[in-house]
Specification:
The structure holds two protein chains of two kinds.
Chain A lengths: L1 H14 L11 H37 L1 E3 L5 E4 L3 H8 L3 H31 L5 H13 L2 H11 L6 H8 L13 H30 L2 H9 L4 H29 L3 H6 L11 H10 L4 H25 L2 H5 L1
Antiparallel strand pairs in A: 1-2
Chain B lengths: L1 H20 L15 E7 L5 H15 L4 E7 L1 H13 L6 E4 L3 H5 L6 H4 L2 H6 L2 H6 L1 E2 L2 E2 L2 E7 L1 E5 H6 L9 H13 L3 E4 L7 H9 L18 H15 L12 H9 L3 E6 L2 H10 L5 E4 L11 E10 L8 H11 L2 H11 L6 H8 L2 H9 L3 E3 L7 H11 L9 H15 L1
Parallel strand pairs in B: 1-2, 1-3, 8-9, 11-12
Antiparallel strand pairs in B: 3-11, 4-5, 6-11, 7-9, 7-10
Helix pairs in contact in B: 12-13, 15-16, 18-19
Classes of the chains: A mainly alpha, B alpha/beta.
Family (chain A): Belongs to the binding-protein-dependent transport system permease family.
GO biological process, one term (chain A): transmembrane transport
Subcellular location (chain A): Cell membrane
Chain lengths: 320, 416
């Protein structure tokens, strides 16, 4: 805030006519002054250009090329890779599955995190330990977590089948990851599991910004626990939930390791999302151009999804 | 507070999208002017591979002062992506150890074999493998290692089920699997998962007169013999004679269960003994037999060959160093040492005798003349194999075999 303030003042000083001073500053000096902010903005603009914009440009450019299976560029493909992609019989099922995957994981994550955040915010003995425990899935590598779950779900030596068999829930071992629907549900569970720490801590941070007086006032007015939660806590948590959901949407959309490690998108393409599909296009089907086209579509999908979400949540009211 | 939120959202979006967008990395390489330093990208076969190359390069550099070899070890799972990146960013290695070469030959990226090894080395390669190293009639690749597949069977399980001999025909395989199932084990281990579905399928299809291409070299993946093969494997699966869900099973799992004595039969290679069986149970009683065929009269085996390829660089300046290095590797004692260490079969006449001394290996060496190869000399093969790996397994699960093969055929025709 303070930087913005001084910048504003500086800009005002530069543009305001100064009656008392003569002679007026020369054009070179005025240009220098106009360019001065670049000194501060330059590095970040360069960084954004290099790290964000350039890869995007490369990605779009690659999607318009014909690239040989050896990796050599053979020339332009025009929009051909896009028409190939849209005509692929696996494309639409994959996109729809991805949307379901994102919606499912994000909704469940946020709901569970609201509860977890509340728990972590409450005072109870051992709170510190619980807070640390919630961070653990975050600290563990996603790939390791996924691999561990894959082996736990193994039909032959997996822990999950063992436990369910011993409890008498199952009569014979189930090959969880070989059946698309079950596999998808288990992977969504793992995705929720690894997204929980970040989300619940964002919500915890949000909870801690709610001033105690508000609750006191509510208590004086005789509001019950539920009513307090839905009319005070939840509305005040909106900014935190908004941020948590958007970052989760993007992360879950692009989540590669969970699916890759657990089912590899198989059997066939039955558990592929756009990210694993993209990988297979490049390395199994040997079509780098089509894979890049898929990446561009993925990019556009995320942008649209986030914008729709912001719109639905009336983001502007939040930031006015 | 509110303005902060905008900032945070903008920053979050930027970071998240930016990170997801930059999937393409590049690696650095150094160019030396003299062409005496070469880069060798080798595949990791197992834990011993790197030690072998380190030693070989040390010996090479000691005998050829001034020449240097930079070794880069790459895992098989990422090799394809690595090589594509090298070519895209024009940072190709001088020598590459891989399982395909024809698309590099087609795109004019690699030397002909005669340019990078001495005539003696060239003449030492076994003719079967030279055929597999050609693109449009010219030899480009240098055969590196080979492998073959045979049927492994558990003698104890066979005895328990009352079977005396290894099955020769498909009907016998099914009958034996039934008996083994009856005695409480898995009849046949069928790995049709995305790892190596093409190898398992071809091992069966070739013994039914099927294959990837017809006599004229055109793709014939949905030919009747292949459909019949897939129907047979589907029938084994549906009758419960295989392990559950072949479409998601990789070789590793099948071999491990075979080594544990829980699978009656499985198709394995020379590497199966050291790589799987000895690690789990050195005393496992198993036998090795030719791959069963539909008719029982002819028994083909699947041949596999990996190659070395030498990339053109700096207008041919690297040729001399590459040739020195390759000739050094192809000395008999060096190649034989590698094959023994890694449990592979020879591709040169001189190393062949060294391996035939071991009766286990002799069976595979003897099977080599009857081996059939995947059409790796066709540049489109990698894409076809990719499609097979992804989709073939579904034919023993939910999909119709004919439909699955039709789809792969389409992919193949599209790829060339």
């Amino acid at each position: 805030m303070s930087e913005a303030g001084t910048q504003g003042a500086e800009a005002a000083a530069a543009s305001a006519p100064r009656p008392g001073t003569a002679p007026r500053p020369g054009p070179a000096r005025r240009l220098g002054r106009a360019l001065a902010p670049l000194l501060w903005l330059g590095p970040s603009i360069a960084l954004i250009g290099l790290v964000v914009l350039w890869p995007v440009v490369e990605m779009v450019r690659t999607s318009l090329l014909r690239i040989s299976s050896s990796g050599a560029t053979l020339g332009s493909a025009g929009a051909g890779k896009y028409t190939d992609l849209f005509a692929d019989e696996d494309f639409w099922p994959v996109v729809l599955r991805t949307l379901g995957w994102v919606a499912g994981v994000v909704v469940v994550t946020v709901l569970l995190s609201l509860a977890l955040g509340q728990l972590l915010n409450a005072r109870f003995p051992g709170r510190r330990v619980v807070r640390w425990a919630v961070i653990v899935p975050w600290a563990a590598s996603v790939l390791m977590t996924s691999l561990i779950w894959r082996w736990m779900l193994d039909n032959d030596s997996g822990l999950v089948n063992r436990v369910l068999l011993d409890l008498g829930v199952l009569d014979e071992p189930v090959n969880w990851l070989a059946h698309p629907t079950q596999a998808m549900l288990w992977m969504m569970w793992v995705a929720v599991f690894v997204s929980l720490p970040f989300t619940s801590f964002v919500i915890l941070a949000g909870l801690q910004t709610v001033p105690g007086e508000v609750y006191e006032a509510a208590r004086v007015d005789g509001a019950g626990t539920l009513r307090t939660y839905f009319t005070i806590t939840l509305p005040l948590l909106r900014p935190a939930v908004l941020i948590a959901s958007i970052i989760n949407i993007i992360n879950v959309f692009n989540s590669f390791p969970i699916i890759w490690a657990m089912t590899g998108g198989g059997p066939g393409h039955a558990t592929d999302t756009t990210t694993t599909f993209m990988y297979k296009l490049a390395f199994a089907d040997q079509d780098v151009g089509m894979s890049a086209a898929m990446a561009v579509v993925n990019f556009a999908l995320i942008l649209v999804l986030v914008l729709l979400y912001l719109r639905a949540s009336r983001w502007r009211e939040e930031t006015r | 507070m509110k303005r902060h939120l905008t900032g945070v959202i903008a920053a979050g979006l930027t970071v998240a999208l930016g990170v997801s967008a930059c999937g393409k990395g590049s690696s650095s390489s150094d160019g030396d002017g003299g062409g005496k330093t070469i880069k060798f990208v080798a595949a990791i076969y197992d834990d011993n591979t790197q030690g072998y190359w380190d030693q070989l390069i040390k010996d090479f550099e000691a005998k050829n002062p001034g020449y240097k070899v930079q070794l880069e070890m790459v895992d098989w799972t990422v090799m394809d992506g690595k090589v594509k990146t090298y070519v895209q960013t024009k940072q190709v290695p001088d020598v590459l150890n891989y399982n395909s070469f024809s698309d590099y030959a087609r795109d004019g990226l690699i030397y002909k074999a005669s340019e990078v090894v001495s005539p003696e080395v060239l003449g030492d390669f076994t003719p079967t493998f030279v055929e597999q190293a050609k693109y449009q009639g010219e030899q480009y690749a240098l055969p590196f290692i080979s492998s073959a597949r045979l049927l492994f069977y558990n003698k104890d399980l066979f005895k328990k089920a009352g079977i005396t001999d290894a099955p020769k025909t498909w009907d016998e395989v099914k009958a034996d699997a039934q008996k083994i199932k009856g005695s409480g084990a898995i009849g046949y281990g069928l790995p049709l998962g995305p790892e190596e579905a093409q190898a398992e399928f071809y091992s069966w299809a070739m013994n039914n007169g099927g294959g990837w291409v017809d006599a004229s070299g055109k793709w014939a993946i949905n030919q009747q013999a292949n459909v019949d093969t897939l129907n047979y494997l589907r029938d084994l699966t549906k009758s419960g004679l295989t392990q559950p869900n072949p479409e998601t099973t990789d070789r590793k799992k099948v071999f491990n269960q075979f080594a544990q004595g829980r699978i009656g039969m499985a198709i394995g290679g020379p590497f199966t003994r050291a790589g799987f069986i000895d690690k789990v149970n050195k005393d496992l009683q198993y036998g090795i037999a030719p791959l069963p065929s539909k008719s029982g009269s002819e028994h083909n085996t699947l041949g596999v060959m990996d190659v070395l390829a030498a990339f053109k660089k700096d207008g041919g300046k690297n040729k001399e160093a590459v040739k020195k290095f390759l000739d050094f590797y192809y000395q008999k004692e060096n190649t034989a040492k590698f094959l023994k260490l890694e449990n592979f079969l020879p591709v040169t006449k001189s190393a062949g005798d060294a391996l035939s001394a071991d009766p286990y290996f002799k069976q595979f060496v003897d099977a080599l003349p009857a081996s059939k190869f995947a059409p790796t000399t066709n540049p489109a093969w990698t894409a076809v194999a990719g499609a097979v790996k992804q989709d073939l397994g579904s034919a023993v699960a939910g999909q119709e075999p004919k439909k699955v093969l039709d789809k792969i055929q389409q992919t193949a025709e599209k790829s060339g």
